[in-house]
Amino acid sequence: MKLNKSALLGALSIGIMSISIACATPQQAVTQLKNNADQVLNILRAANGSNDNQVRRQAENYATPYFDFERMTALAVGAPWRGATPVQKQALTQEFKTLLIRTYSGTMLKFKNAQANVNNNPMVTKNGREVTIRVDVTAPGSKPVRMDYATYQSGNIYRIYNVTVEGASLVTVYRNQFNQTISQKGIDGLIADLHAKNGN
Fold this sequence. Notes:
With 200 residues, this protein is an alpha+beta fold. It has helices at 5-15, 26-45, 52-63, 69-77, 86-104, 170-197; strands at 115-118, 123-125, 130-138, 145-154, 157-165, 168-169. Strands 1, 2, 3, 4, 5 and 6 form a six-stranded antiparallel sheet that branches.
């Protein structure tokens, strides 16, 4: 079985990996990442076909508080973000968050039998305030796929602000799309397009 990397990126970044740390240190970030990956995979494995939606929502609710969707949106929008009003920034963040969750949540259950092997030696920058953790994800019958979770220290936790799969950055992929829309329709046009894609 060949893994769909885009689906894997979104599904795992929204549904599988979250970081919650009692005392924020890089090594504790790695340890908690391992624990939380196991916990969410266990949630997904409880699906029996009749309760798939409930299980998926449970996994999403567990993971999403540990993602910084505003920072992810700012990175995905790029330079035009600085010119957006507070109201536009809020709308963009909400629509982008909804897009990510709705686009990939349906694929989460496909990876419930995956194995997530977390590297014990993260890349630490800015005196430990930013930590990038490598994870090799393997689904039955597939080769491992490398994922890199970029996180930053926020109080006593590390929050995810970007995910890279085999060199493909989530925020960069969307930035290319968003910049084209903004150049043609402006910030409000991007908000409207995202709103439409989200089925609102």
